[in-house]
Structure formats: C-alpha cells, structure tokens
C-alpha cells in the first residue's frame, strides 16, 4: 500500500490520520453554528459542533469516564474484601 493510501485526505487538502467524527464534528463543506460556543464553523452537513468544542467535549467525557472507573474499581475492591475474596 502506498504511503498516500494509508491516510485519509480531507477536503482542505490536509493529510490526516484523524478518524472522524469526533464528538459532534466531522469535516465537510457546510456552514453551521456550533451548539456549544454558538460560533459559525465549516463541517459536515450533520456536524453540530466546531472541531475545538468537539475535541474538548470528548476529552472532558473521557476524564469523567476514567474517574468513574476508578470509583467503581475501589468499590469492587471493598466488595471483595467484605466477601473475603481478597
Ligand atoms: Zn464550538
């Protein structure tokens, strides 16, 4: 496979390995208003977030998910101690 074919080319001729959609954003030619910052952006017909807000939202969501996993792991350790399996 040639080097070019490994990468997805987006409409602005920028070569990227980024896999879209990210949150509410995907590249495209449509002008939309971001549901988060309410500024106009250019993206896919169905995109509802600008790229910056989409990336920030996904990062925040990941941080919250990791925090929740840590709490669940701690709770599981407590349960294991109570039932004597640790
Ligand atoms: Zn935005």
Regions with little confidence, pLDDT below 50 for 5+ residues: 1-7
Q: How many individual domains?
A: 1
Q: Which structural class should the secondary elements be placed in? A: alpha+beta
**Approximate strand percentage:** 5-15%
Order of helices and strands: HEEEEH
Overall 3D shape = elongated
**How many distinct beta strands?**
4
**C-alpha Rg (nearest Å):** 20 Å
Overall mean confidence score, pLDDT: 87
Give a short account of the largest sheet: 2 strands, antiparallel
* DSSP helix fraction: 40-55%
Task: Give the distance, in angstroms, between the N- and C-terminal Cα atoms.
Answer: 51 Å
The molecules bound to the chains, other than polymers, are:
zinc ion
Q: Can you describe what's shown?
A:
The protein is an alpha+beta fold and 86 residues long. The chain has one domain. The chain is 42% helix and 14% strand. The strands form 2 sheets. The chain has a two-stranded antiparallel sheet. Strands 3-4 form a two-stranded antiparallel ribbon. A hairpin with a 6-residue loop joins strand 3 and strand 4. It is elongated and about 60 Å long. The relative contact order is 0.12. The N terminus is likely disordered. Bound molecules: zinc ion. Zinc ion binds next to helix 2.
């Amino acid at each position: 496979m040639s080097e070019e074919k490994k990468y997805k080319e987006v409409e602005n001729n920028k070569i990227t390995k980024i896999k879209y959609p990210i949150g509410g954003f995907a590249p495209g030619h449509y002008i939309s208003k971001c549901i988060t910052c309410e500024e106009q952006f250019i993206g896919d017909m169905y995109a509802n977030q600008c790229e910056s807000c989409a990336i920030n939202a996904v990062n925040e969501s990941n941080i919250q998910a990791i925090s929740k996993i840590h709490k669940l792991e701690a709770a599981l350790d407590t349960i294991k101690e109570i039932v004597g399996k640790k």
